[in-house]
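User: tokens in, sequence out, please.
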């Protein structure tokens, strides 16, 4: 059939017969399936009722005009997240009430092959950037892949299965990388078939990620079994899963007749999978029976197995299992070990640990005995807490807790006694219980005069309910350290008379020795660390040098400010209150003082004094003096409370003030929503103890950081966060939703919160009418410039005309993410975990510029073919100091060069192996080894250790394709060796410059005065000095991390080569020599940790 002739099945209703030129896909890709959500101008199915029919004469410009016209009449949708309790009925959607499901799930290799034999349209990508629609099928004898239409004759428009070398998922060939339209092709819909001795590629794009996975899984299955005959039907009947299901059925079939009542079968499947709805199970049985043209209330063994397989197989998990098991229907201990090491980032995994996992999660007794994990056990394992997205190391206190109090973010509550809005809400003791159980470490007590000389806490806008001060103190004493062992700060607002203040002071005996009463030492410069289990009182204090039993202090009455601001006669003046000595003496290291400006505060404020800022004032300061605010917060505590106009107790955005280093950002715990999600998610880290260590760039005495930075942070390595949203499970109907029945159209929104340069938001496509297991299969990338301050919020919404309705969310700090395939437990609007409601995702974090985090996340990514950008030092304006910093310019360039040269060499090897940048080096070596094994299972190269570095040497003649890969591998080893050998010398040079510069730190003002610098010029010089010190420290740390990464890489490469048998052909005890070399690498690594690096 000639290229350009009509496909044999003819076009569908939406297709048009095209000649050869017209059959080429329109370069703008606006109408293609399988493209990322943004590639076609966000052209999603939004149920707008608009249709854009294709026509033979439609040009790209006409398509664009039609889209613009459609956009004008399409109603805009709100992205506002609404409180579910206030949801209104939305417009009805068109819902299909068909009694039978139309699609069959893929649950076995035979399903994949049946799909391929039926054929489907794929887009064929050519190196010349042209893309053609072709109909691909698999021959009935499973020996060849064919496509139509084609200029070639039928016998040439095919690819023999026996000629296939590799099948790659994603855009991982030169054709894709060099194609001008590659950015518009979805990574998850692309696949490549490498064939022939020269590894030529057939590059294809499916119309969905599911279809791509089916072709990849099916082809891999065929290639892996091409050397042996097999019977698909026989194979599907003898899988570990089918044998287990037969055992389950026979155990429940008490009569032994091979049939069972439908009611019994339904109950049995619900026991095996509690998340399934009874109605869905019964519908599946009816579907199966209808296909067999029978109608009965009894179920056979085969029907039971078929129903369970279709209902309980998650295709995305099946595809993953086939991929990591090398095309088997189960995982053995070695498969699982490789998966945990290379994909999940688990270190020090052993075969026995894998067998233990199998014994705990495999459902069949045979699997547990023989040591294999079938699809159902693997699904259970992926859903278990062991595969949770939250790093288990962060579930305990993992940060340095010896720093001063001012170096931590502190979990803080505003108007803790309220459980409703702050204007009319009643006081309730449960407000304190709830806050303390959530590890809140700063709570508020606004105390007023009460009856019978007993102080009370109440909302002075609603005097109907009040709490006695004593009862509140007793509750605090009881719950203070239930959720956290670290200091609790009581923010005391005193609005009562002196006699009742004395009663308050008498109640201190309730706390006993828990109360912190040590006087601050004037000789110290910083607050003590939070290592003590103490209760600290924050409040006003009388001057210590005056022998007064009582005196006047300014009143910090935030609640009164709220009422006054709403009145017409408010003039902004603060009133004075009388304070007794007994209550004043309870305040030690958290004395409340009034903020004036940073110049006065830095000169005269004592380290034990704390300023409170209203949200409005703090926002103004953060915008006008971002660097000064960060520097101020290095020594002093700052407390920020919500604006007086938030009478509904809504919450401020805490991230805005964390970016400035503000430690105590008070939140209204009674008000759920996005801002409270951020707050709750942030304080999950560090064991949920209520204290989170701030980034070092915001703690170091001499460092530069601006809260409003919109680019790279000096001395910090940017990272790239790769998130693949794979699927969702058991999404509930939004609370308050109506008119749509049980149908929802979910999509996932990913929000990045952090410094302004990192804030971003992206969303998946909408999956129509699927709440049980919607498949998204979309990948996103985010550059993170300050990882230590970044948070990710996953939010699931129901796509709706009037307003997208909230389904669930989960918020997590970037530092707590675990890499690999993970399930995210979604939380409700009020923050409760929803049972069985999850998101299935894949996470990878790569370094954009080298260095970075721990080995399990320390991967590499190509920077791109552009001019290398070096971090520049600034001119201070003082010659003596500038001369010192000039010496550091060359070492800084060397440091960046060796780091990035190594990273680029690693990425080149990954690309030639057909792997994405997020792949680990172990995955890379395992892929490479499959090419380097001859047909007789002997290696074509051998591992040779030279100077303790793992080189690969050819054993005889090898093809040009392998020579290219080995050349890239040698370059990677050489660049890694160069970095390891040069790192110490370069590091020492940078550190020496840093130390020499720091010697002038104390004399900066005097040197500036001698040079005639003052005012803004002097401040600029001090800022530039801090910038340079930050760059030097940061770059030396990055080099240190890069060396550790390189050493770890060499060790992983050697282990991978040994496990793949690449040392078998080496001469005379090569394996023993390799092991000795591995020990040498480990000793070198240990020595470096104990030495300079």
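Assistant: Sequence out:
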């Amino acid at each position: 059939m000639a290229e350009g002739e009509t496909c044999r099945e003819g076009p569908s209703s939406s297709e048009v017969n095209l000649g050869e030129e017209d059959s080429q896909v329109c370069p703008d890709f606006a109408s293609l399936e399988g493209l990322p959500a943004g590639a076609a101008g966000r052209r999603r199915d939004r149920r707008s009722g608009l249709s854009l029919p294709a026509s033979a004469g439609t040009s790209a410009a006409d398509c664009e005009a039609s889209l613009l016209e459609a956009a004008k009449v399409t109603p805009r949708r709100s992205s506002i997240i609404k409180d579910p309790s206030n949801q209104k009925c939305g417009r009805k959607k068109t819902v299909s009430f068909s009694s039978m499901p139309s699609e069959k799930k893929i649950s076995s290799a035979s399903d994949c092959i049946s799909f391929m034999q039926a054929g489907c349209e794929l887009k064929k990508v050519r190196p010349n950037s042209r893309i053609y629609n072709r109909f691909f099928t698999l021959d009935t004898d499973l020996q060849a892949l064919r496509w139509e239409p084609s200029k070639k004759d039928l016998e040439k428009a095919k690819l023999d299965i026996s000629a296939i070398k590799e099948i790659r998922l994603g855009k991982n060939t030169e054709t894709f990388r060099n194609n001008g339209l590659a950015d518009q092709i979805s990574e998850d819909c692309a696949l490549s078939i490498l064939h022939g001795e020269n590894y030529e590629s057939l590059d294809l794009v499916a119309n969905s990620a599911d279809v791509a996975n089916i072709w990849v899984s099916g082809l891999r299955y065929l290639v892996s079994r091409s050397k042996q005959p097999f019977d698909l039907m026989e194979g599907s009947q003898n899988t570990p899963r089918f044998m287990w299901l037969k055992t389950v059925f026979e155990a429940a079939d008490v009569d032994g007749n091979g049939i069972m009542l439908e009611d019994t079968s339904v109950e049995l499947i619900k026991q095996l999978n509690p998340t399934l709805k009874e109605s869905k199970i019964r519908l599946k049985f009816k579907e199966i029976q209808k296909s067999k043209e029978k109608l009965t209330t009894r179920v056979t063994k085969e029907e039971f197995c078929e129903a369970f397989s279709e209902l309980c197989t998650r295709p995305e998990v099946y595809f993953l299992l086939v991929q990591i098991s090398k095309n088997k229907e189960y995982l053995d201990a070695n498969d699982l070990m490789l998966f945990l090491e290379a994909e999940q980032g688990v270190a020090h995994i052993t075969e026995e640990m894998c067998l233990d996992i199998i014994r705990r999660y495999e459902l069949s007794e045979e699997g547990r005995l023989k040591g294999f994990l079938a699809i159902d056990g693997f699904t259970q394992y992926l859903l278990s807490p062991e595969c949770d997205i939250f790093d288990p190391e962060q579930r305990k206190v993992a940060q340095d807790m010896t720093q001063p109090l001012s170096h931590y973010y502190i979990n803080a509550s505003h108007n803790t006694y309220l459980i409703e809005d702050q204007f009319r809400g009643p006081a309730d003791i449960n407000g304190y219980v709830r806050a303390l159980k959530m590890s809140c470490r700063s709570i508020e007590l606004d105390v007023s005069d009460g009856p019978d000389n007993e102080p009370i806490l109440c909302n002075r806008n609603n005097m109907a309910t009040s709490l006695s001060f004593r009862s509140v103190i007793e509750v605090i004493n009881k719950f203070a350290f239930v959720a956290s062992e670290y200091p609790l700060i009581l923010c005391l607002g005193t609005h009562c008379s002196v006699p009742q203040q004395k009663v308050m002071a008498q109640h201190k005996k309730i706390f006993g020795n828990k109360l912190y009463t040590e006087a601050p030492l004037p000789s110290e410069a910083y607050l003590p660390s939070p290592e003590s289990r103490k209760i600290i009182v924050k409040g006003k204090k009388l001057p210590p040098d005056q022998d007064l039993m009582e005196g006047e202090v300014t009143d910090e009455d935030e609640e009164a400010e709220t009422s006054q601001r709403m009145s017409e006669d408010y003039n902004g003046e603060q009133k004075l209150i009388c304070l007794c000595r007994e209550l004043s003496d309870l305040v030690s290291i958290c004395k409340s003082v009034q903020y004036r400006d940073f110049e006065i505060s830095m000169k005269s404020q004592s380290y034990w004094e704390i300023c409170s800022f209203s949200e409005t004032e703090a926002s103004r300061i953060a915008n006008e003096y971002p660097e000064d605010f960060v520097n101020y917060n290095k020594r002093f505590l700052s407390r920020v409370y919500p604006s007086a106009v938030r009478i509904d107790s809504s919450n401020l955005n805490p991230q805005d003030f964390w970016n400035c280093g503000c430690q105590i950002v008070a939140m209204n715990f009674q008000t759920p929503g996005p801002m409270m999600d951020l707050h709750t998610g942030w304080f999950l880290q560090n064991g949920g103890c209520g204290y989170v260590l701030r980034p070092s760039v915001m703690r170091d005495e001499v460092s530069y950081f601006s809260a409003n930075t919109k680019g790279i942070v000096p001395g910090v390595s940017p990272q790239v966060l790769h998130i693949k949203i794979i699927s969702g499970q058991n999404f509930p109907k939004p609370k308050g939703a109506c008119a749509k029945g049980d149908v929802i159209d979910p999509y996932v929104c990913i929000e990045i919160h952090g410094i302004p340069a990192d804030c971003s938001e992206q969303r998946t496509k909408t999956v129509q009418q699927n709440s049980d297991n919607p498949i998204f299969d979309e990948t996103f990338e985010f550059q993170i410039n300050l990882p230590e301050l970044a948070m990710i919020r996953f939010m699931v919404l129901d796509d709706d005309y009037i307003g997208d309705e909230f389904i669930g969310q989960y918020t997590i700090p970037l530092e707590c993410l675990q890499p690999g395939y993970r399930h995210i437990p979604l939380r409700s609007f009020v923050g409760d975990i929803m049972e069985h409601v999850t998101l299935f995702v894949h996470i990878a974090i790569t370094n954009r510029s080298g260095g970075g985090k721990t080995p399990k996340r320390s991967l590499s990514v190509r920077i791109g073919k552009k001019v290398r950008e070096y971090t520049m030092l600034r001119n201070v304006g003082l010659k003596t100091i500038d001369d010192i910093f000039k010496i550091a310019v060359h070492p800084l360039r060397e440091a960046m060069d060796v780091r990035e040269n190594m990273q680029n060499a690693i990425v080149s090897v990954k690309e030639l192996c057909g792997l994405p940048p997020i792949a680990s080096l172990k995955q890379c070596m395992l892929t490479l080894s499959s090419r380097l094994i001859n047909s007789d299972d002997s290696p074509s190269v051998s591992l040779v250790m030279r100077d303790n570095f793992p080189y690969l040497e050819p054993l005889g003649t090898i093809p040009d394709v392998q020579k290219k890969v080995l050349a890239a591998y040698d370059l990677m080893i050489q660049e890694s060796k160069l970095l390891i050998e040069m790192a110490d010398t370069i590091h020492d040079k940078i550190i020496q410059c840093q130390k020499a510069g720091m010697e002038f730190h104390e004399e900066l003002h005097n040197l500036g005065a001698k040079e005639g610098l003052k005012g803004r010029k002097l401040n600029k010089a001090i800022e530039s000095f801090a910038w340079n010190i930050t760059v030097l420290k940061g770059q030396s740390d990055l080099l240190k991390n890069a060396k550790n990464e390189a050493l770890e890489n060499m060790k992983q490469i050697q282990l991978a080569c040994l496990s793949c048998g690449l040392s078998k052909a080496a001469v005379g005890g090569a394996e023993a020599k390799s092991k000795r070399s591995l020990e040498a690498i480990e000793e070198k690594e240990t020595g470096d940790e104990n030495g300079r690096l």
